[in-house]
Amino acid sequence: MTGNISPAAYAMRPNPYTLPAGTAWWRVHNKARPAGQFNPVSVDAHFGGNRFDGTSYDPYPYLYLASDPATALAETLLRSLDFDTASGMRLIPYAAVANKALSMVRTRFDQRLISLISEEDLAAVCQDSWLLETEGDGYAKTRRWASEMRAQEPEATGLVWQSRRHRPRLASVLFHDRCGKEPLAEVPVNEFRDLGSPAGVAAVNRLLVPLRAAVATPWR
After folding, report:
1. Is 187 inside any structural domain?
2. What is the pLDDT of residues 8-50, one digit of tens each?
3. Cβ-contact 34, 186 below 8 angstroms
4. Domain range holding 64?
């Protein structure tokens, strides 16, 4: 499906995915900000932004998470990054990790997400892999699809899908207007507090070895 038909034309039957209270998930964020802080900035409905951000037409604060630390790093650092022909590695610019932290958070309450993990899940919302694979200009339509899923499933507190950059691990987005006050508790992990430090870069590179990716540092 290319997203050429309005999602409002379909009667969806979303499959639920429960994220139990106490579940540990991960995110990369600015180290000066709390790990559980949602992004309150609504993006333009047509330009910029990411796949399932809130927009001026459906303005919800949002927060992206991943099921494990390597997936959180891959989702953040490996976007549109080609393999270097000389080294066979994906070389991550140091600026991508400077002033960043990788944190664990735990859910304080059960979260009832819409599952987009399997083909059956995608079919349940009248979609296919296009919803998770399209890039760039396609985000205007994926955001519209997220808004319609929210409208047709008002109890849903977010979405969950298979990470494009670390299959079959999971990525998700939470909707702050639905998932309760202070839905996440931060769990400090010392080795990931400063990803731009030598120790932080070493920790990142250790996790990304199986994905043939590493941070290119300004020091030897």
Report:
1. yes
2. 999 999 999 999 999 999 999 999 999 999 999 999 999 999 9
3. yes
4. 7-216
Q: What's the token pair of residue 76?
A: 């953040």
Determine what percent of the chain falls in helix, strand and coil, rounding each to the nearest 5: 25, 25, 50
Q: Taking residues 75-98, what's their average pLDDT?
A: 96
**Residue 211 located in a structural domain:** yes
Residue reference for tokens 């609504």: 42
* Strands annotated E in 48-157: 62-66, 90-93, 100-107, 111-116
Residue 152 has phi, psi (to 5 degrees) of -85, -15
Which amino acid makes up residue 189?
Answer: V
Q: Tally the domains of the chain.
A: 1
User: How far apart, in whole angstroms, are the C-alpha atoms of residue 139 and residue 135?
Assistant: 6
Please report the pLDDT score of residue 2 as a whole number.
Answer: 66
C-alpha 140/C-alpha 145 separation (Å) is 9
Per-position DSSP letters for 50-70, written without gaps between them: -TT--BSSS---EEEEESSHH
- Return all residues near 32 (Cβ < 8 A) that are at least 6 apart: 99
Measured between alpha carbons, how far is 80 from 135 in angstroms, rounded to an integer? 10
pLDDT band at 4 (very low <50, low <70, confident <90, very high): confident
Q: Which residues pair with 106 in a beta bridge?
A: 24, 185
Structural domain contains residue 1: no
Asked if the model's pLDDT at residue 51 lies above 90, the reply is: yes
Percent of the chain with pLDDT over 90: 94
Asked if residue 2 belongs to a domain, the reply is: no
